[in-house]
Amino acid sequence: MVITIDGIKCQAHKGEYILDIAKRNNIHIPTLCHSDALPGQGNCRLCIVEVIEKGRKKVVTSCIFPVTGEIEVVTNSEKIRGIRKTLIRLLSARAPKNEYIDKLRQEYNIPPETRFKTDDNENCILCGLCVRACEEMGIYAISTVNRGITKKVSTPFDEASDVCIGCGVCAYVCPTSAIKVLDEGGKRHLWNKTFELMKCVKCGEYITTREHFEYIRKKIAAEGTEIIEPLCDKCKKKTLGENMAQTYK
Ligand code: SF4
Ligand code: FES
């Protein structure tokens, strides 16, 4: 089927999300809590658009709105900009000094927040992506704790979690870089826990934590694939190239 986004005709499949169709057609819709690896989060609402269907207009969240018929989509109408401004204002009150939020605030000409008591060190917007990423890996080391203004993401009782493997996937998916992974002197510090980092067996570069490597090794073994060696990405590619050259000699 064909849908129209900002006057551009776009091919779409039934059930596809508006955001994915827009991306494929190089139409920009701002997002925060969307990750291609973990679609369907739908928490920040920054990606709202207006949908016109059979003459009726409605505001929808484009990253979780599946297309079921021929619709017209407007991504940047006055109404949408107005709602987005309010959302950015609230995000800015939560994380006033965060680089990404501040960039959005300036893009939408919103003055710095002065009405609420703000915390300049806060970077988390509680989108939940980190928690979901951890759950999808089957680890469950972090979750949202507390309520209201004290709500935050943490390990149980803010203590070092027995189950955390220090993979850092939580930090990788975080849209506001709120989670800091500190690697120094062969150790990784994350979520109040210190991990030993493993070295690449070929070049000696630090790669990941022992717990993370074991996690990957077990997953791979469960799939019946060969047991892997601890290698950095560079050495992995080099070894693959050498093996291929050997095969086609
Ligand atoms: S730490 Fe990052 S990914 Fe996790 S909830 Fe906060 S903003 Fe979202
Ligand atoms: S990007 Fe769609 S709700 Fe956050």
From TrEMBL:
Single GO term (MF): metal ion binding
Domain 2Fe-2S ferredoxin-type: 1-79
SUPFAM superfamilies named in the record: 2Fe-2S ferredoxin-like, 4Fe-4S ferredoxins
One family name in Pfam for this protein: Fer4_21
Domain 4Fe-4S ferredoxin-type: 114-145, 153-184
Keyword Transferase: no
Keyword entries, A-Z: 4Fe-4S, Iron, Iron-sulfur, Metal-binding, Repeat
InterPro entries: 2Fe-2S_ferredoxin-like_sf (IPR036010), 2Fe-2S_ferredoxin-type (IPR001041), 4Fe4S_Fe-S-bd (IPR017896), 4Fe4S_Fe_S_CS (IPR017900), PSI_iron-sulfur_center (IPR050157)
Entry function: Ferredoxins are iron-sulfur proteins that transfer electrons in a wide variety of metabolic reactions.
PANTHER family: HYDROGENASE SUBUNIT (PTHR24960:SF84), PHOTOSYSTEM I IRON-SULFUR CENTER-RELATED (PTHR24960)
Protein name in the entry: Ferredoxin
Organism: Biomaibacter acetigenes
